[in-house]
Design brief:
Layout lengths: L13 H10 L3 H10 L9 E3 L7 H4 L6 H23 L13 H9 L10 E7 L4 E7 L6 H4 L38 E6 L14 E10 L9 E5 L7 E3 L3 E4 L9 E3 L2 E6 L10 H12 L7 E5 L15 E4 L2 H7 L10 E7 L2 E9 L12 E7 L2 E7 L17 E6 L5 H7 L11 H16 L1 H15 L7 H13 L1 H6 L31 E3 L5 E4 L4 E7 L13 E7 L2 E2 L3 E6 L2 E6 L10 E10 L7 E10 L26 E4 L4 H4 L7 E6 L2 E7 L3 H7 L6 H22 L5 H12 L2 H12 L1
Parallel strand pairs: 2-11, 15-17, 19-26, 27-29
Antiparallel strand pairs: 1-6, 2-3, 3-10, 4-5, 4-10, 5-6, 5-7, 8-9, 11-12, 13-14, 13-23, 14-17, 15-16, 18-20, 20-24, 21-22, 21-25, 23-24, 25-26, 28-29
Helix pairs in contact: 4-7, 16-17
Amino acid sequence: MKSLFTRKIVPEDYKILCHELYSAESEVEVIDVLKSHSLWDDENCWTNYGNEDNNVAIIGNQTTSPEAALVEKFTNSIDAILMKEARLHNIDPKSKDAPQSIDEAMELFYGKNHESINDEIFMVATGSQKRPSLAIIDKGEGQTPSQLSKTILSLRQTNKIEIKFVQGQFNQGGTAVLPFCGINRFQLVISKRHPDIADKSNTDHNKWGFTIVRRNSSDISSRNTRYEYLSINNEIPSFESEYLELLPAKYPSARSEKLFSGTYIKLYEYNISISSHINTSLNYHLSLLLPGAKIPINLIERREWDMKKRKTSNSMSARMYGHFKRFKKSQKNLEKGFPFKFPMEVQGEKLEVMIVCFKHKLHRSYKNTQGILFTLNGQTQGILKDTFFDRKRVGLGYLKDSLIVFIDATKLSVKSREDLFMSNRQHLRNNSFKREIERLLEDELSKNKMLQKLQKKRRNELMKERVNNTEGMQNTLSKLMKTSPNLNMLFSTGKDFEDRLNRSEQGDNLFSFNAQQYPSFFEYKLKGIKESPINRNFRIKFKTDVEDTYFTRDTGRGIASFRLEGLEVQSYTLTLKDGDAHFTCVLREDVKVGETLTYNYHISNENPDIETFSGSFEVLVTQEVNKCDKVLQEKKPKKEQDALSLPKIAEVYKVDWESYGFTAEDVLKINSNANSYDFIINMDNRYLTLEKKSDRVDELRSNEIFKGAIFLYALSLLNDKKDDDLAKVEISAKSYAKVVLPIFHYGEIYKD
């Protein structure tokens, strides 16, 4: 793009410059515009971002994900909308009269029904298909030109820290996208204050302010690059105009509708892998990172596509609502009884857990490898991968692809939030608080009746037709054990891998419970004293007739209180499903073996007129147990070993690859199942297939050698590993598969 003129820019030309910049679709075009106005090489026209020389240390050390960085922009836009509404309601956002949470703000400003909030925030994709330019637009409060350097262009300022109903805390989210913006890191910022909240005493209250951010590496004496923004004569360029045509209209228009105030931010050549339109796959991923989006985001696709392959031009746009709303609209994709919620208390801090389980193969638009997501005000703050479900203490390997667990941390104290979350909103600090959450969650997932039932069902469906007769392998291994001490040692713990394939249960009484709105009883069921090993959580069962959401619903919520020696219990979960209430508790660190603990419970309601229930139960602390849940005791003489009992080994061929997620490169998939593993071997993998093309290969014999060798290799790795990282074993098996048959043939050749 060539400028309309090449003389040095003056204020009267700022509107034209702004138009040229937002019309540019590539970095080359942006540089051409700046050079044509003699701005590109003029160091006097650029100011360090945040007024910090070493700002790259802050900007370059945030999120590692371009999608997560975009979510930061969306949360800033949502904050801007809510800030605008507060000021339109004559509420000082920092005052005691302001809403104390995002949910409270939404209800105050929009009422309980939020369906009408549809056209406040947009993301528009333009430019090339591989490296699109993305414009994020909101109709929020906007900023005056003089305030831009103190808000959007600032770093480490406390702009929002005292405002309870917004998401931003670290004053870094606006820069998280910069490392993903092309080579030069261009980001265009255009903003105008909403006229009804602007301070009329300011001379620029009705002006649009704009600037462009770049990465500058021209200073050869500096060890680092720096981020800077356009500032002419030490001021943000500005101009007067009632509106700018920045909003998208009907396809294919990217900019033709009027924006009267708010903020427009354009990211040039954004480094994100978008294989299709932003309103499909990217929509789903962003929805996972912002599952509780309070205001929908309009995703508008305006790159050039072959419209013959699209049914209508209307398919080039969509609204992103967040996963929580998607679940409500797509119950048909979920297993019956889900989502399932329950409260959790850890070290005195309150959390709320939601378990979501999709029907088989219907998870693909909802998750990839994400397993557990910690959220704060609807935004994901930290993620644990779904390998968590492979852990032996969890044993839900067959549901791994279908499960997502959301842990709402909104009610955490500021101190606990800082202890758990990092500012990049991706990783969690590995401390006692996190480990205790994981331990309680492991217990709840492994003992959840619905998940256990679904695990058995999935396992039967996948293994029923694929489990082969292992009699030949069993006989071979039995003979090998007589001559191989290593193999004998490997199977000395064979009980850990004992086959536990459970056939489908008859009937389905799990979902037939007739629930009441409020409980008429809440009873402790165990007769006598509950025993608990000192190194384990204990679990107590109650019976009741109240609905499952009693402790998590929005109104008429139940309140549970558990005390030990007069002190509130600090770490526990309380799940409620079909009349069974399970209280899982972490023992205090100072308890001793042989001690009997008396717990008191009190079940009440936020409505004082609802009946309450109280009682007590006793727990006897017993000695420590080992990983196999057997009491540690002196070693006894070994009995004669039982007949070898193999885990389930399934052969899978190319025709069924899709069901197991296999490709030609994959060799092995291991599914956890309670305390055992199932081994699924791809018999059409490329390494075995190539070897079988050789004339010297007996196909049937090679199959058996390959299957047995892969199984033993994986079993050995699992026996040595302590962290249940099945993915690493599966990857390692690929390398071993390349040499299994060559090793065998080497032995034969050497013998000859």
